């Protein structure tokens, strides 16, 4: 029997800790904005084999989330207009299913979150295994610790949403693709294709794997085969061979996709699918593609792929249209190029930023020393240039995995910064595990034991050993202190991890000043507001709520909808406003934002009586 290593035991304890933290959060937070359509859609896929709801996201995460619900005696709103008549009536159907069909929304939401929690933990397993394989046990545990206590993964790891699932899929598919490049055989090719197919069923942004895999394959040819000429018959022949393998991976992926979409569309009446598809794509900015997708919906054998492509087109339409967003005092419906860099600086622990800075300094100083010594030998400029190119190629070949990981981070961040959708740091979460692995490798190498003392005399060995002990343990102590800071900073806000903002932002109490929506307020605290109302014996509260949970269900007759644009509505008494709605109504409109803002400026002269878990502001106005 194979003995379990100590690092595996520690990793198991870390993941068990994360599981307990996630399960508790899953039990106390309200269904967030995106969860109600995802949950009802997943239930419909599994039990009715009908894909009419939420086609803008692939089915796999929703199906996994809804699996525990299949064993419960739940009522589905099959006669409601949102199901029978509406085109993609996901929001109303979700509300009906959760709140008004004699079901328990708290129980449904909790059990639906079990699947995403398992995906989150599986992501941690991959991070640990791959990092340990590359750099050793301590590095694996370091990377896993960054993941387990990340406030952003503790926040998003419970939700029935696509972000952590996409993060898992990117790392999962990349791992097996690089494994295929390193050991090219039919088995690894098949596994890479299966992983690619599974990834496409997680989130449509996984389409980025196509250019990423292509670029990675090109780099493999250039760095590993070292062609004398980039443009030569032999190089082109090898490139074509690799592109052929990429096409095979894509074909395997398409084969994996088909049965899942076939199952989820087999109960979807073909007339309804054709009608819904044409209605959704009626004003598509891509009419040729829209017509092709509509044509495919009419062909029984192609219906599954029609839904798959429909989802892609819906995502393109949404990104093109933008989203109303508050960011640092401004409101717009198109993107800020600096949005993700600034949000990253404010929403990851400050200690993590310092670890990245240390890693950059380590790489830069090491590279500078090597190049300085190497280039000093070369006499002419052409010799130096040739030497420099040789060193780059040698470095890329030796550290190909690290280069491939960095290429992914660069591609993903570039696409995110140029996109027209800025609604949360969650959209760049897929790059985080790649950063954890790279960081663990750099710091593990920086603190490794030094064994090069054999050729020194006794006194030189003593001097070198003392210097080594002090420097190595200083490095370890520095990293330990930063990890401890990371741990304390993250858990200081738990279980309200979604509202995490670091010390640079002034902590979570100041977070709403910078960004809202899924950075802070995703509708998760409606149940907490209901507890506040009951505890303070409030008989009536006006609420402007950002979310898809039902205030009427949780607050019952104490709830009064509040519309800040209704000048006739009384603005006294107890008033609660979600942070997202509050900031959208106080920000300055920029870049031709078409709607009026300033409708919550009148609240500036009042201090809130309470702020519910950083996300709902409660006022009492006489």
UniProtKB/TrEMBL annotation:
<protein>
    <recommendedName>
        <fullName>Glycosyltransferase RgtA/B/C/D-like domain-containing protein</fullName>
    </recommendedName>
</protein>
<feature type="domain" description="Glycosyltransferase RgtA/B/C/D-like">
    <location>
        <begin position="112"/>
        <end position="227"/>
    </location>
</feature>
<dbReference type="Pfam" id="PF13231">
    <property type="entry name" value="PMT_2"/>
</dbReference>
<feature type="transmembrane region" description="Helical">
    <location>
        <begin position="242"/>
        <end position="263"/>
    </location>
</feature>
<feature type="transmembrane region" description="Helical">
    <location>
        <begin position="190"/>
        <end position="222"/>
    </location>
</feature>
<keyword id="KW-0472">Membrane</keyword>
<feature type="transmembrane region" description="Helical">
    <location>
        <begin position="465"/>
        <end position="488"/>
    </location>
</feature>
<feature type="transmembrane region" description="Helical">
    <location>
        <begin position="339"/>
        <end position="367"/>
    </location>
</feature>
<keyword id="KW-1133">Transmembrane helix</keyword>
<keyword id="KW-0328">Glycosyltransferase</keyword>
<feature type="transmembrane region" description="Helical">
    <location>
        <begin position="110"/>
        <end position="130"/>
    </location>
</feature>
<dbReference type="GO" id="GO:0016763">
    <property type="term" value="F:pentosyltransferase activity"/>
</dbReference>
<feature type="transmembrane region" description="Helical">
    <location>
        <begin position="427"/>
        <end position="444"/>
    </location>
</feature>
<dbReference type="InterPro" id="IPR038731">
    <property type="entry name" value="RgtA/B/C-like"/>
</dbReference>
<feature type="transmembrane region" description="Helical">
    <location>
        <begin position="137"/>
        <end position="154"/>
    </location>
</feature>
<keyword id="KW-0808">Transferase</keyword>
<feature type="transmembrane region" description="Helical">
    <location>
        <begin position="160"/>
        <end position="178"/>
    </location>
</feature>
<keyword id="KW-1003">Cell membrane</keyword>
<dbReference type="GO" id="GO:0005886">
    <property type="term" value="C:plasma membrane"/>
</dbReference>
<keyword id="KW-0812">Transmembrane</keyword>
<feature type="transmembrane region" description="Helical">
    <location>
        <begin position="392"/>
        <end position="415"/>
    </location>
</feature>
<dbReference type="InterPro" id="IPR050297">
    <property type="entry name" value="LipidA_mod_glycosyltrf_83"/>
</dbReference>
<dbReference type="GO" id="GO:0009103">
    <property type="term" value="P:lipopolysaccharide biosynthetic process"/>
</dbReference>
